[in-house]
């Protein structure tokens, strides 16, 4: 288990404007306090060869949205780190996975957590393919499962409060505007 990247308030994230221009570094805790400060983030969606999405239930140790179901992996690049590098790093740290990722879109959102703080992020969405999960970090992930896309469509509507806001937002866009990208990944034999 790699705990070197556990949530640390003093880590420096990347502040950006609405057009993803870098404004400078800021401490993680300041980025997530009150209404938050706009910073770079990423969300990874890993599909298996049957087209099912890997979901994770966020650990009870997470400060924001603990115990909620989320996409396969999500986090932030650190100051001076490229988003693609950070995405690969966190995927391996949290789920023990190493697989090629493709960036397909970005979205901006802001959401207040009922217990503490908020997320205000410009989020890059990556997709990838894997049939397995490696060693899972229990400080990050409480449990995981592969789910059918249609089942997730229904579950997000009927049980909205069990899913993170960024999953609900990105999933809707992924399904309505980028499903061909997912199909291309699934059809690609190099993954």
| Terminal-residue CA separation | 25 Å
Structural class: alpha+beta
Order of helices and strands: EEHEEEEHEEEHHH
User: And the CATH topology?
Assistant: Nucleoside Triphosphate Pyrophosphohydrolase
Task: Provide tags for this entry.
3-stranded antiparallel beta sheet; 26% helix; 4-stranded mixed beta sheet; alpha+beta; single chain; 32% strand; disordered N terminus; Nucleoside Triphosphate Pyrophosphohydrolase; 5 helices; 191 residues
Can you characterise this structure?
The two termini are 25 Å apart. The model is unreliable at 1-7 (pLDDT under 50). It is built from five helices and nine strands; from the N terminus they run ββαββββαβββααα. It has a single domain, classed as Nucleoside Triphosphate Pyrophosphohydrolase (Alpha-Beta Complex). The protein has helices at residues 28-31, 83-95, 149-158, 165-177, 179-187, and strands at 12-16, 22-27, 39-47, 53-58, 69-70, 73-75, 101-112, 118-129, 141-147. A hairpin with a 5-residue loop joins β1 (12-16) and β2. The chain is of the alpha+beta class and 191 residues long. The strands form three sheets. It has a four-stranded mixed β-sheet with strand order 6-3-8-7, with helices on both faces. Helix content is 26%, strand content 32%.
